[in-house]
Amino acid sequence: MGKIIGDGITFDDVLLVPAYSEVTPNMVDLTTRLTNKITLNIPMMSASMDTVTEHRMAIAMARQGGIGIIH
């Protein structure tokens, strides 16, 4: 039986306020886990819609470290 994950958030729940930061791009780690065995280098997944993800989009997403779900 699967785990129940806590509440999620959407874009409407988050406000990003521009500010000065000492963090440089090479210090940031965007990796995330899709499953226990699949790690993504970027937290992005393209939609499983025939007008969004075809083979070209899935390949481009994979090359950048994400995943594309083909409809």
UniProtKB/TrEMBL annotation:
One of its GO terms (molecular function) is IMP dehydrogenase activity. InterPro entries: Aldolase_TIM (IPR013785), IMP_DH (IPR005990), IMP_DH_GMPRt (IPR001093). GO terms for biological process: GTP biosynthetic process. It holds the Pfam family IMPDH. Residues 8-71 form the IMP dehydrogenase/GMP reductase domain. Belongs to the IMPDH/GMPR family. PANTHER family: INOSINE-5'-MONOPHOSPHATE DEHYDROGENASE, INOSINE-5-MONOPHOSPHATE DEHYDROGENASE RELATED. This is IMP dehydrogenase. It comes from Candidatus Eubacterium avistercoris.
